[in-house]
Amino acid sequence: MRKGLILPVMLVGALALTACSKSAKDESAAAGNTVVGDANSTMSNAVDDLDAASNQAFGAAQNMMDNTADAMDNATDTDSDPE
Q1: Taking phi first (over 0 means left), then psi (-120 to 50 degrees means alpha), and beta for anything else, what does residue 81 get?
Q2: What domain of life is recorded for the organism (predicted)?
Q3: pTM of the complete model beyond 0.85
């Protein structure tokens, strides 16, 4: 009796899986696309933040170098003045 029930139950289970598989595949694809879109957006924001931080850091370094060069110029100008 058990052997006679196993095959029909397996067939019903297989049919149920194939009937749902198209919908499940579509939902999985949509979820995958959403994850990819979110990841791309996050990476884009990270790159923008990194670019802004780099620009700020390099701008500050350039200002410091300019100020140092000006200070050196002023120091050499005052040292060469005859008194």
Answers
A1: beta
A2: Bacteria
A3: no
